[in-house]
Amino acid sequence: MTQAQLQESASFAAPSSETGGGNWREYFGFSTDHKVIGIQYLVTTFVFFLIGGVLAEGLRTELATPESDFVSPELYNGLLTVHATVMIFLWIVPGLTGGFGNYLVPLMIGARDMAFPKLNAVAFWMIPPAGILLLSSFFFGAAGAGWTSYPPLSLLDETKIGEAIWIISVLLLGTSSILGAVNFIVTILKMRLPGMGFFQMPLFCWAMLATSALALVATPVLAGALILLSFDLLAGTAFFNPTGGGDPVVYQHMFWFYSHPAVYIMILPAFGLISEILPVHSRKPIFGYAAIALSSCAISFLGLVVWAHHMFTSGTPDWLRMFFMVATMVIAVPTGIKVFSWLATIWGGKLRLNSAMLFAMGFVSMFVVGGLSGIMVAAVPFDIHVHDTYFIVAHLHYVFFGGSVFGIYAALYHWFPKITGHMLNETWGKIHFVLTFIGFNLTFLPMHKLGIEGMPRRIALYDEQFAGLNLVCTIGSYILAVSTIPFVVNAVWSWIKGPKAPDNPWDGLTLEWMTSSPPPVENFRGEPVLVTGPYDYGVGDRSTEVDVPFSDAQDPALAAGPGSALRADPDPSVALHADDRQDPGNSNP
Amino acid sequence: MSIFTILLRTVLGIAVAVLVVLLSLWYGQNHGLLPVQASEQAPLVDGLFNFMMTIATGIFLLVQGILVYSLFVFKRRRGDNSDAPPVHGNVPLEIVWTAIPTVIVTILAIYSFDVYKAEGGIETMTHPAVAHVHHEQPFTLGSAAYAATLPESDALLAQSMEMPGAVEGSSQIEVSVAALRYGWLFSYADLPDVVDGELHVPVGREVNLKITANDVNHAFWVPEFRLKQDAIPGRETVIHFKPTRVGQYVVRCAELCGPYHGAMNTNVIVHTPEEYETWHQEQLVASREAVHETVAVAPVQTAQPAFLAAHVQELGIQPATLSAFRSAMAHSHQPAAVEAKGNS
Lengths: 589, 344
What we know:
heterodimer, A: about 600 residues, mainly alpha, globular, B: about 350 residues, 5-stranded mixed beta sheet, 10 strands, elongated
């Protein structure tokens, strides 16, 4: 018997008669089931992703030629502002935390639901009105000061209504994110099944814990900044308005105090998802469980003290520039630990190269590019050259698209059978991956060169010298747009007519695979039991020798195999293997 | 495993490592991504970038190499449904890949700090005495080369104290820069009445820009100088550089300032010292001319000759030169009439 079969035999899946999937109307109402809310989040945010993508295609079409000929420059700024806001606040943040967080966290920790189910539903139902409100601002002249909304530009009369709408919708979305964060922290701290200590948790739960802590600490500061900004805008105060003695740089500090951590809110859950997907499809335990778990916490903490690296040219004092430079560079260390651990997880595995695995490997590949350019822009002298240029545009898209969005796609392919009870078509999945990979690199790779050579970001018209590469970027962006079609068609068709998915199609070991697909209301038929660690692939026989440099089976610190101190332990009271059991009273299961 | 295979693997491993290092070193120097270097600061920044590019190329090749290699070598064999070996981790390996990035990052931080210092940042850390008096405040580290902002009142004071001819004869060129939608205004400390839409500087001399904005945030960026500084209304930011290459470069606004942000460009013209002297003299005369004309239309005409004579004497210009210029330039130069660039 494999580990997966043992783990499955310990828990009882609900019979399929109990998992009808419920009434479809449920998905349009105020449901308190975390799985329904998770699906609501995923579908809603994916729709906003498509809308944000349409806005992006508008931008790229304008930039196909140096002149301003597709949209007016005013509309162009509206498009870029709303594009960024939609992608950040209506797609990546709610999609990763609200969508996958809601769906997976209770299942992974063996809980029946989130700690506060009504709060959870409230958090979701703030999103559609906020999103519609934001998009409606195009009818009144959308905010044109970028998603950063720096005053005094954001305080000008020309986009006053759009700006006010922008502030209100971002405040709503931020509130939703805070409510979600409270819920995740309480759920993860308090609702794990008995016997699941912190170091038996799946890594996605670690990532969600780190993310939620960040969201809880940082988001209120953004809310404060936006409320003061709205006073300046609507009531004529002068917190940030220099004409009344205010200081625009204070806004930048408050804004980035949230918005840099927001980067980690958008990437940490994706790290967590990748840490789940790679071991399953490599058929190997995650390499260095504790290092990955703790590096999430380190990134979460460090992420709070690096915000001013967005402000190296804002007249920030020297000593601050140096402090923020060093703090930023330090983040490379925990991030590097994760990347190398993922590579070591893949190394020597038996890779099942399905769509989920391809997107997960694509994630590692593309995120590394964004990470490397991130270290470059941490260096103050170089950042001063490329700040606010297309180099930054390239960097952030490698992190958010090559990182977060590839991560989301990998997770969609991986958990689609669990969520819907149907398998996705693999061929179309691979076509989707190849098109996305090519389109993405064609769109964003040339932007590095554009930025270094002198093209500022957020411009509707540019010099003739940048025309060639911009055309390449635009063509790439069309390929990227087309690449979503196979996915949407595949997902819709499979959801309705796809072959039925078994409960555990990938032979995973985490608890969400130990219930039926889709899981019933309240998730498990009885109490699920954790008899193996979450990543105990290949741990059949205790005598298995593993060929790893420096490994010593006798020394837990150096052991690479089942005796390794680095292993995420199974529940010590019911563990499958006698060596893992710690409670002597429970030795005859 | 036989000795032979181990040997073969070791040799192959070393060969790949050497190849990666060589490729990184080559690409770090030959990426061809950077524009020409036109300031003293540019080669410093480029050196840093090349160094980072070398390391980044190495890491990039390593990661992508492992991924691509795994894609082919570790692909599941058809019919093999067993799991891979249970490797949970390896402490020495993890220490290595924590330590190496730490070392790289430390070196990079020190190198960046060095470049920043050499560029002219953090001056007072080494030469507190050199600090300009007006920049000294209790809580700053001093006259950051292109950094520290001043509270408004101090800035205005500094400006009013320094503007009138303070730089006469010194080697620094002092220019006040005002950014406004969608253009730049440059006024020179030693040309009191000249306001120009383009920046003229001589090659090889230190230029000091004091930057502010009249409406919204802007940013002064010359890619060939590798320097950028935000222009913030209500604040004065400082940047200084030494141009090293004669030519005309584009000054770009790098902070979103409105719909025509992309058109907010002007030129910085780096002159040879002789050209600059000629330009300087022309401006001087033209500005006198402008003052003269203003005075001429003023109701009280009597002041004119005395007024001009005093200035001419002060500037050491022969009356003959002046009249020659006056006839040559008649109305061609109207300083202060600067049209906002762009709006194409």
